[in-house]
């Protein structure tokens, strides 16, 4: 069950009461505000927001204004405009039991509300020093594993790597048609990958001054671009989006992304110092995986029906997705050709 608290100005309370009357548990007044408490099944949350005309608004409008009729961002006291959704450990109430029984027989599609998805990606759309430091550490650990030809150390680096965040956020914001945030996610992803390549190159150069560095089989394996890796990245991107939508922890789902991106990016930096001829191949493999992961993630977002609620916004987002997927298709074709030529 979900507990939903809606607080609105008194003059708008009657419209809200009418919209939530079937699941309304209690009403209380506080000054100029009215607070409604609802208990609804988990599967009903997205439907409730959708039925109350929850158009996905543009910033700075909040994302949940659909539950508050005639919401005005210029509210004199915005503290009396509130929606809070939580999951109580348990609820004991004949009324709540009746609601649960009423909706248990309904065959409704379980879907995570887009507002919750966006809230989970907000921290992934801005530069975060801690995230980049963690990515740098993961890159250095992967570099050690590659030089030692130790698969266990490489896998450990994948567990540390935070590469999932920008790709997941990019797919979500593409699906809702937010061009500005999508571009910012691309910038963050590109910056993170370039940082990994640069750190690997600098660390390799420094180590080469004090000790001979071998080109191990693990390194050579990441200098062999192949069209099959694009298919793998597509499937990984799609599977990761599906896993996250089912509540699988990001730390587990992110390993798939890190497996495709982290070692090739590190090998690109290593090759720039030790094997310039192999650097281009490693870079192509890295690009293949990046493009494949992005395309697969966006396809996963479309499959999961992630998108804005507003009809006009839906049209714009579909057009944006169509254009981006066409561009990615052309880029994938180009990378496939390149993989056969180098």
Structure, explained:
- The protein has 342 residues and is an alpha+beta fold.
- It folds into 2 domains: 2-111, Alpha-Beta Plaits; 117-341, no CATH class.
- The chain is built from 13 helices and 4 strands.
- The chain has a 4-stranded antiparallel beta sheet.
- β2 (24-30) and β3 (33-40) form a beta hairpin.
- α7 crosses α12 (276-303) and α11 (250-274) runs antiparallel to α12.
- The radius of gyration is 24 Å and the shape is elongated.
What is this structure's SSE topology?
Blueprint: E1 2-9, H1 13-19, E2 24-30, E3 33-40, H2 45-51, E4 82-86, H3 94-104, H4 114-121, H5 129-148, H6 151-160, H7 164-175, H8 179-208, H9 217-221, H10 227-245, H11 250-274, H12 276-303, H13 311-341
Antiparallel strand pairs: 1-3, 1-4, 2-3
Helix pairs in contact: 5-6, 5-8, 5-11, 6-11, 7-8, 7-12, 8-11, 10-11, 10-12, 11-12, 12-13
Highlighted features:
342 residues; alpha+beta; Alpha-Beta Plaits; 13 helices; elongated
């Amino acid at each position: 069950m979900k507990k939903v608290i809606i607080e609105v100005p008194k003059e708008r309370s009657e419209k809200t009461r009418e919209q939530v009357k079937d699941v309304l548990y209690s009403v209380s007044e506080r000054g100029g505000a009215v607070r409604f408490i609802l208990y609804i099944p988990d599967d009903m949350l997205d439907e409730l927001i959708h039925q109350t005309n929850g158009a996905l608004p543009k910033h700075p409008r909040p994302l949940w204004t659909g539950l508050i009729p005639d919401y005005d961002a210029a509210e004199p006291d915005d503290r009396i405009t509130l929606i809070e959704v939580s999951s109580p450990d348990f609820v004991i109430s004949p009324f709540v039991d009746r609601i649960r029984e009423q909706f248990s027989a309904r065959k409704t599609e379980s879907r995570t509300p887009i507002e919750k998805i966006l809230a989970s990606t907000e921290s992934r759309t801005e530069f975060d020093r801690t995230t980049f430091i963690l990515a740098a550490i993961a890159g250095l650990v992967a570099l050690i594993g590659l030089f030692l030809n130790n698969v266990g150390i490489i896998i450990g680096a994948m567990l540390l790597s935070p590469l999932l965040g920008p790709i997941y956020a990019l797919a979500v914001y593409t699906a809702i048609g937010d061009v500005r945030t999508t571009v910012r996610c691309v910038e963050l992803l590109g910056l993170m990958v370039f940082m990994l390549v640069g750190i690997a190159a600098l660390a390799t150069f420094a180590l080469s001054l004090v000790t001979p560095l071998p080109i191990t089989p693990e390194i050579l394996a990441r200098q062999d671009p192949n069209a099959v890796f694009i298919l793998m990245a597509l499937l990984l991107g799609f599977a990761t989006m599906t896993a996250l939508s089912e509540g699988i922890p990001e730390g587990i789902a992110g390993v798939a992304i890190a497996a495709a991106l982290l070692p090739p990016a590190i090998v690109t930096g290593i090759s720039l110092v030790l094997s310039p001829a192999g650097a281009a191949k490693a870079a192509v493999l890295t690009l293949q995986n990046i493009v494949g992961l992005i395309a697969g993630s966006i396809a996963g977002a479309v499959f999961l029906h992630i998108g804005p609620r507003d009809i006009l916004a839906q049209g714009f987002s579909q057009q944006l997705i169509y254009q981006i997927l066409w561009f990615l298709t052309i880029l994938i074709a180009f990378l496939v050709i390149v993989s056969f030529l180098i």
